[in-house]
Amino acid sequence: MHPAPKTFELLPGADDSPVILHVPHSARTIPASVRGGILLEDDALEGELDHITDAHTAELAASAAEAAAVRPWRFVNRLSRLVIDPERFPDEREEMLSVGMGAVYTRTTHRAPLRPADFDPGPLIERYFHPYAQAMTEAVADRLAATGRAVIVDVHSYPTARLPYELHGDGPRPPVCLGTDAFHTPPELLARAQAAFAHTGSVGLDSPFSGTYVPLEFYGKEPRVTALMVEIRRDTYMTEPGGPASPGLPRLAAALAALVDAVGD
Q1: DSSP E strand stretches across 116-149
Q2: Collapsing DSSP states into helix, strand and coil, what is residue 165?
Q3: pLDDT 10s digits, 40-75
Q4: One matching Pfam family, short form (predicted)?
Q5: CATH number for the segment(s) 8-264
């Protein structure tokens, strides 16, 4: 009998580090009980995972943590975002519901059916989404208690060419896109990120993806929780879609480590 896969993992950093590297979309694992509710045949599902997974971002965050002067904490999703997407709102606030990509996806990246039209997302939300959100909330609260602040750096990647599901994909697609939040991304955090990634190519803001992740308990309420999303264009560090990492990955990991050091100081 195979053990149940880990759903997420908090990897400890230094006691005095306020930084949490959040890696929500790096995994491809789908439990058998969840796989049964997905319409795609195996080959089509593997293709969808190639497109939707932020491949190698867990390795990127691990390398950055290793290189940083003060080790950051890492919160890593060990299940595919096709199980649940922990960064979506679990209700009508989520704009991606319009393309079938709320907290539980019902459509693919190419807007084809992923789950049946009458699929009930409730059990997946209860089983996977809420425990993830609670654990991330506790991780942030622990950093606040230990250091007086928490800095969430959301580690993502995105495809070079726009995919049909993207709502705002008609703008620039720079090598590095920084997603910001009006409340949780102060100018100094943004400036330090721009400096850290400056040598990796052009750095853009909020295009093709915007915003950043903060647990709802703190969202829009707690200014000591700051956050930034780092979206890395995939051709800069891997073969698309879903292929191996390229020599660009260590360079980007070094830039991420520089950001960790700058904001953790």
Answers
A1: none
A2: coil
A3: 999 999 999 999 999 999 999 999 999 999 999 999
A4: FGase
A5: 3.40.630.40
